[in-house]
Every structure is written in structure tokens, then in C-alpha cells.
Amino acid sequence: MKLKILYFAWLKSSIGTGEERVEAPDSIDNVAGLIDWLKTRSSGHAAALDDLSVVRCAVNLDHVQPDAPLEDGDEVGFFPPVTGGSR
User: Fold this and answer.
1) pTM above 0.70, yes or no
2) What is the mean pLDDT of the segment spanning 39-60?
């Protein structure tokens, strides 16, 4: 399965790139499986994706949970939690 992976903020710094295109194993069918596989790619990936309480994910620009399914050609983004508003 071919995927475009985007990393934002400190995840980008830890992994060393803001974007990569990967050929994920056919056994990966959801975001959780992708994360497990990505963590094996480098120590930077492992460190960035170690604590998922501080990582959010989107598939094709929609915020998703780790059990979200993946399909060939999807764009997957990883980013820290975002807060907004004004005081």
C-alpha cells in the first residue's frame, strides 16, 4: 500500500523530515498498524511515535482514531494536539 505521510511540529524535527512516501506492508490496514510499522523505520520514528497521548492523526485531512482504516493512496498526517481560541 502506497501512502503519503506528513509530520508536523516536533514530530517533523524528531523524524528528520516533514513528508515521506512509503510502501507499507499489505498486512497494515489501519492507523495503529501503520504507527507500529513506522516505529521500526528509525530511532527518530520510534521516539516521535512512542507516546501516542501527545500525537494526533488525520487521514485525508479528517481527524481519526488509531483504528481508522487505511487504503492505498491515503495521506496520513501526524501532529501534536492543537488548541486554539483567544483570551
Assistant:
1) yes
2) 96
